[in-house]
Amino acid sequence: MAEGVFLVFWRQITPSEIPFASSETLTGTTISPANATTPIILTNTSGRYLNNPAFAGISIWTNGLNGGNARTSICFSEEFVGKKIKIYFSFASTYYEYEVQIWDPGCWIIVNPGSGPSTPNSITFGNPVDIFEDFEPDERDPAHPPPTYNPFTPWLVLTIEQATAACVLSDVIRVTLNSIPTVNVLSAAVYRDGANTGVTLPQLTAGVTYTDPGNYEVAVVYRYLGDDINPPSTVNETLTRNFTISTTPFPHMQRASLVHGYVVPGDPMLFDTAVVDDGTIEYNALNGAFTLRFCGNYFIKWFVAPQMDMTRDGVNFAIAINGSIDLIGSSHAAISPAMGFTIVNVTGSPPTIQLICVSDGNIFLSEVTQVKAGILLFKIGEELPI
User: Fold this and answer.
1) Is 226 within 8 Å of 232 (Cβ atoms)?
2) pTM for the full predicted model
3) Which of 10, 141, 198, 297 is the Cys-Cys partner for 381 at CB 3.0 to 4.6 Å?
4) Peptide bond before 39: cis, by omega within 30 degrees of 0?
């Protein structure tokens, strides 16, 4: 089943281009003061919205949904599924026009497309219509016809996976075409450095493994057959995906943290900025984990610049390999950088590397240094896996 609220940003407009009376506009005074727990129900407001069943299911959270996100949210419940609506809103003196399609219950967190305030000054709702119908004449635009398919329904999936069972000496990329009943795949090709590799559609459906260095492009020509919700397409479409196999894999990466904050005991240090990255070491920005997929010995060096700490044992960090703590690097002074290094031998399953706080209290990072923490990883050996 389709899910979500789909947005189409039509254009920036002037107030005179809004085809509704100003009395039907929700202004800053209407939607303020902000309320984090009680939404504005559109059918409870004035103008043509009042007690109008066409607008049932629309609510506005002016200070974050359920006390969460601080931005204004427009939410659509079950009553509004299968409809679309034009919404006009302003930030300061700049006005915008959006088309909002509701394929399943959900919310739209309004973000200023330009610069200036984050909260809209005014919101005006157009007339709801069925998703596959055109808008009423005063809101219609020939350049934006009704949609022909549900954008949340997957048409075709190309899976490009790097080998993960064991470390490798060169990239191992497996490409698989996952077809679905609503799509007729007409042809498929894989190109390496612009030349056709000769792969056939049955081979791609079964999965093809590539190890030769080069720049690859996968191209699949298909036609959508339609389903219970969406009509069939009348034209052929092409899905493309690209990947690269490194010519001389020599993994190396350097990352830094430029945002000050603090790290609690047991948590990883996060590095928000890539300084050097050859694309062969994976980094997870959510948990600070590096994955080493190529066999060999890796040298890892790191530092953390604290502002202060709430510890009794100084500033202490350590490299964790698959969650197990390695050599600890320490500083006995609260404002002195902690640093350390280690060598990791990768011979089997690709390990994950994290820099973990192992102090007995919170470590607050420096507010004055340009770089709060840094880490460098690079391979120094060509050992074969055991």
Assistant:
1) yes
2) 0.49
3) 297
4) no
Q: Chain-wide mean pLDDT for the chain?
A: 85
Q: What CATH architecture does domain 157-245 belong to?
A: Sandwich (2.60)
What would the two tokens of residue 41 be? 């129900």
Q: Which residues pair with 255 in a beta bridge?
A: 274, 375
Residue 331: predicted pLDDT? 55
DSSP assignment string, 142-183: TTSPPPSS-TTS---EEEEEE--SS-BSS--EEEEEE--TTE
Q: What amino acid occupies position 69? A: N
Higher-confidence residue of 242 and 71: namely 242
* Percentage of residues of the chain with pLDDT beyond 90: 43
Q: What is the mean pLDDT of residues 240-268?
A: 86
Supply the pLDDT for residue 334: 53
Asked if the 252-379 domain carries CATH number 3.20.20.70, the reply is no
Cα dihedral value 261, 265, 267, 272, nearest 10? 30
- Between the CA of residue 52 and those of 31, 101, 139, 230, 385, what are the distances in Å? 19, 19, 19, 29, 69
Is residue 217 within 8 A of residue 262, CB to CB? The reply is no
Q: Please give the Cα distance from 116 to 137 (Å, whole number).
A: 32
The distance of Cα 47 from the centroid of its chain, to the nearest Å, equals: 38
Of the candidates 158, 192, 164, the one whose C-alpha atom is nearest the C-alpha of residue 176 is: 158
pLDDT of residue 137: 94
Give the DSSP letter string of 59-111: EEETT-GGG--SS-EEEE-GGGTTEEEEEEEEETTEEEEEEEEESSSEEEE--
Per-residue tokens: 141: 């635009």
Q: What local confidence, expressed as pLDDT, does residue 176 receive?
A: 92
Break the chain down into helix, strand, coil percent, rounded to 5: 10, 45, 45
Round to whole Å and give the CA distance between 5 and 284.
Answer: 28
Q: Where are the domains of the chain?
A: 5-139, 157-245, 252-379
Least confident window among 140-149, 228-237, 270-279? 228-237
**DSSP classification of residue 294:** B
